[in-house]
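Q: I'm a student working through a structural biology exercise. My instructor gave each of us a protein and asked us to get a predicted structure, then write a short paragraph describing it. Mine is DNA helicase RecQ. I'm not confident about reading structure output yet, so if you can add a plain explanation after the tokens, that would really help. Here is the sequence I was given:
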Amino acid sequence: MLQQALYLLEHTYGYSAFRGQQQHIIESALAGEDVLVLMPTGGGKSLCYQIPALIRPGLGIIVSPLIALMQDQVSTLTQLGIKAAFLNSTLSADERRTVAYDLRQGNIDLLYIAPERLLQPGTLQWLQQFQISLIAIDEAHCVSQWGHDFRADYLQLNQLREAFPGVPRIALTATATPRTQEEIVQRLELNAPKQFVSSFDRPNIRYSVQAKQDGRKQLIKFLATQRGNSGIIYCLSRKKVEATSEWLQSRGLNALPYHAGLPTELRAHHLTRFLREEEIIMVATIAFGMGIDKPDVRFVAHLDLPKSMEAYYQETGRAGRDGEPAEAWMVYGLNDVMHLSQMVDRSEAHEIFKRNEKAKLEALLGWCEETSCRRRSLLAYFGEQHETDCGNCDTCLTPPKTWDATEPARKLLSCIYRTGQRFGAGHVIDVLRGKMNERMKDLGHNHLSVFNIGAQLSEQKWRSIVRQLLVKGFIHSDADQYGAISLMERSRPLLRGEIQLFLREDIDSKPENMRKTKTSRYNEVSDNDRELWQALRACRKTLADEFGIAPYMVFH
Ligand code: ADP
Ligand code: MG
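A: Happy to help. First, here is the predicted structure for DNA helicase RecQ. I'll explain a few features afterward.
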């Protein structure tokens, strides 16, 4: 059977060797075992269920929440000569009938189905008439109520166990935390599953995080190192997505917006353009994500903070699936820290849930302020210990300087205290810097002893201090009080002068200092090479158009 698997790999998919643990996973599934696969995004999970499903007799069922991508996946498979179809809410009654007919004729080997569709009354019974080779549950972390992709329908997928006894089930996800792992096995009721955990290291991705000074300016500098590349820019809100993409377009860049508020057709159109064309920058909310399979995404930029390390890893994982160098670039600042923690505070969620969200956010913030190798600490978060620094992330390339911030921090804490712990960061900093305005006078804050005791530091520097004190838990910003900052227990010893505090020096964004982007192959080549490169690209595009396929499918 392994022979068959190799044959399919080479002749149907056109790959020369299995990657990572693919072969072992396929062997287990072929042996009829339940399997749990944890593999990073882009690791090659699809083959792990497609190949055994094709080899074992009968129909392979793939449960996937990614309705928007099913069409694309199925047409890619069809182009490879694999008989695949999908069932979800986008199909008309006629189309559904055609699929049902093809199924009865034995004309389908792989059926992609949305969970809500699978769980409709009667669907399971209807599928029972067919011989089922294997059931794959993709994006299996959607079953986790702790995760950010929770789908209630996934909780009912345990029904598959009784409906199809003896049929191997393979659950796949790119979310690695041990708790999610356990939850998947339990909730899906997998039978003593073999677990395959791949390393989450993505050595070709270079991580960098900058303190936000002027987000747009910093973005433009970054994009200047990415000329000719495809990439994704993540923003938190729909409004910001639109504003950013318009602004980039006005600067002559090929930017497209993507968020859940756009008309379905426009969204699909932008997705298709991103997948098929080159040099497109997708400006998106997290609605753009799971399952996007474009190998040559050269960068993922975050203009706003994601919600957790898991989300960050998933989102940046969309870069460099082809194994070529890629960039994960992020700017973040005080406002992000306040905004996100307020969002958590304000959410209607249950208290336990909120605490969990908060802990996740704090882990991410701590990582942003990291002074040692970013890759190592990212992987450590996912339970992977690495011996050496990567030598490639921003902290490795430009080790951040720290400075003794004890005195300024004490001034800040005193100022928060003297102004009654009722004001936001902006006002507290104004008091410290002795800014005179009507509000200051109305409040009488210009007469306080803390007024103007911090004029020697810039506003930016103060914002950096506030941000780091928030992240380190010395102070707290209260959502119900419009972001008013108050002191936490931890600040006492600092105020009393019992401890010293070293903070990270924010680095000014100077891309010239950054690694000469290995990423941008385009920038490194000579003019001669560049012409050749362009000619190749044009030719690739023509071929792709000719055959109606994505350019990356022509050649790499
Ligand atoms: P995942 O679902 O884990 O995110 P995919 O299954 O979508 O990843 O695969 C990511 C990319 O890697 C795809 O372009 C796929 O064709 C490619 N790929 C998968 N397995 C192999 C392999 N053995 N050799 C070469 N390329 C592969
Ligand atoms: Mg996948």
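A: Here are two points you could use in your paragraph. The mean pLDDT is 88. Residues 15, 18-19, 22, 39, 41-47, 293, 295, 321 surround adenosine-5'-diphosphate (ligand 1) (CB under 6 Å). It's a good idea to check both against the output above yourself.
Q: Great, thank you!
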